[in-house]
Structures are given as C-alpha cells and as structure tokens.
C-alpha cells in the first residue's frame, strides 16, 4: 500500500490520471475445497503472474488479501473517457488472461490441469490530483460487488470519479 501511495503522489505531481483495480477470484473456495490449499496457492501464484504480465512496469500489483488482488495504474494520459477506457482495457486483458489460465495442480491421480478460472474486477479512477487512495479503493470495491452480483467473470467501472478529501474532511 505504501508503494501505491507513492505512485499516487507521483501521478498528482505529473498531473496524470490514475485508476485502481480490485480483483477477486470467482469461486476460489471451491478450488481449495476440491483440490486442496496447495493447489489454491498454485492458482494464486498463476493469477499473480497473469496480472503482472498484463500491466506496465510502472504499475503496482499485489495480493490484497485472501483471493483478492489490487492493481494501481498511474500515469494515465488524457481526461475521461480516454483514461477510463485505458483502465477498463487493462482490466479486460487481465480478466481474459486469467480465464485462459491452465494451472497444473497435484492431486490423488497425479498432476492435472485446472481450467476455467475467472475473476471479477472493479475499477475506479480519478483525474490528476483528485482522489485519495481510500476513496479509490472504496469505489473499486463497490464496482467489484456490482460485477459479482451481475454474474462474475466481468469488469465493472464505478460510475463516478473518486473525490479528493483532505485529511480533515469528514467521511
């Protein structure tokens, strides 16, 4: 999170837009229940590699807890809708790559491929210098739950721009 804060500060200084993606593996409990926690760990590593392969070197990605991942996209050029489209495109690339994964997991009958993984992704964005990280996270999380309720394996972008709140602002 500290690296994301630093990148958000850099985006403010550079007067560029930013976006946050919150990813949640769909039905991950089923992977652990059916294949075991070691297989679950393999899946998490494979998803982490898939996420990293679809973002730029300057972007930040990491596990956000359980089966959730966070991606920060800084330095997005242009104003909405172009920066929003860039964030959505990155999220869609990640979603498609996760869907195409084939993870070799060990089971009772030896190694077997695990296919059909999916991820739901919530996206939030802000114009240059406009938002604090907690606002971006909250909005991306709201969009994630819209994606989950809409059937999973999809990307949803929060409708509005995250708003700036000074440390003394309420809420």
Question: Helix and strand layout, with pairings?
Answer:
Layout: H1 2-14, E1 17-25, H2 28-35, H3 37-53, E2 60-65, E3 68-76, H4 82-100, E4 103-107, E5 110-114, E6 119-126, H5 133-149, E7 155-157
Helix pairs in contact: 2-3
Task: Give the strand line-up of the largest sheet.
Answer: 2-3-1-6-7
What is the CATH-assigned architecture? 2-Layer Sandwich
Mean pLDDT: 88
Given helix and strand content, the structural type is: alpha+beta
Structural commentary:
Residues 16-160 form the GGDEF domain. GO terms for molecular function: diguanylate cyclase activity. By secondary structure, the chain is α+β, with helices and mostly antiparallel strands. The chain has one domain: Reverse transcriptase/Diguanylate cyclase domain (Alpha-Beta Plaits, 2-Layer Sandwich), CATH 3.30.70.270. 43% of the residues lie in helices and 26% in strands. It contains five helices and seven strands, in the order αβααββαβββαβ. It has helices at 2-14, 28-35, 37-53, 82-100, 133-149; strands at residues 17-25, 60-65, 68-76, 103-107, 110-114, 119-126, 155-157. A five-stranded mixed β-sheet has the order 2-3-1-6-7, with helices on both faces. Strands 4-5 form a two-stranded antiparallel ribbon. A hairpin with a 2-residue loop joins strand 2 (60-65) and strand 3 (68-76). Helix 2 crosses helix 3. The protein is elongated. The relative contact order is 0.20.
């Amino acid at each position: 999170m500290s690296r994301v804060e630093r990148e958000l500060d850099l985006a403010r200084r550079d007067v560029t837009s930013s976006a946050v993606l919150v990813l949640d593996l769909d039905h991950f409990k089923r992977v652990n229940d059916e294949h075991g926690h070691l297989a679950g760990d393999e899946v998490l590593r494979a998803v982490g590699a898939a996420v990293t392969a679809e973002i730029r070197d300057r972007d930040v990605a990491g596990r956000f807890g359980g089966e959730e991942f966070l991606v920060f996209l800084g330095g997005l050029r242009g104003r909405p809708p172009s920066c929003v489209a860039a964030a959505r495109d990155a999220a869609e690339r990640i979603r498609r790559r996760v869907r195409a994964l084939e993870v070799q997991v060990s089971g009772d009958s030896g190694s077997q491929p695990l296919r059909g993984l999916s991820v739901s992704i919530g996206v939030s964005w802000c114009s240059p210098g406009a938002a604090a990280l907690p606002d971006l996270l909250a909005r991306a999380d709201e969009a994630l739950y819209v994606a989950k309720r809409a059937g999973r394996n999809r990307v949803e972008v929060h409708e509005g721009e995250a708003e700036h709140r000074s440390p003394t602002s309420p809420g």
